[in-house]
Amino acid sequence: MGYSSRIMAESWESNLLYWADVGDQMGTAPADLNIDIPEWTQKVVERMFASHLEDWPALLRSLRSVGDDIKAPPVKAANPNGRGGS
Question: pTM score > 0.70 for this model?
């Protein structure tokens, strides 16, 4: 794919800076980023609905969407019996 694949590879590498910032905001230990970043990147690919590699806005939307989800506080599951407590 030539030039396009080189640009795509370079853009994935630059995403590491974004993930490092997300991890820093979340208080993630640097060593844990070795596990988290590949998982986060997989989510980006799953959410990306690009028709071709040149769809840079789709990549950026997907990257930011996953980052927002990571930074959002976890939602507590509702008690199935409808009562409070544990």
Answer: no
Do residues 59 and 46 touch, judged by C-beta distance below 8 A?
A: no
Q: Render each residue's pLDDT in the chain as its tens digit; 86 residues.
A: 555 566 555 665 678 888 999 999 999 999 999 999 999 988 888 887 666 666 778 888 888 999 999 999 877 766 656 555 54
Here the tokens at position 39 are 């998982």
User: Residue 86 class from Cβ within 10 Å (0-12 exposed, 13-18 middle, 19+ buried)?
Assistant: exposed
Structure token digits, residue 63: 């990257």
Task: Find tokens 């996953």 and name the residue.
Answer: 66
Interacting residues of 71 by C-beta distance below 8 A, sequence separation 6+? 22, 25, 26
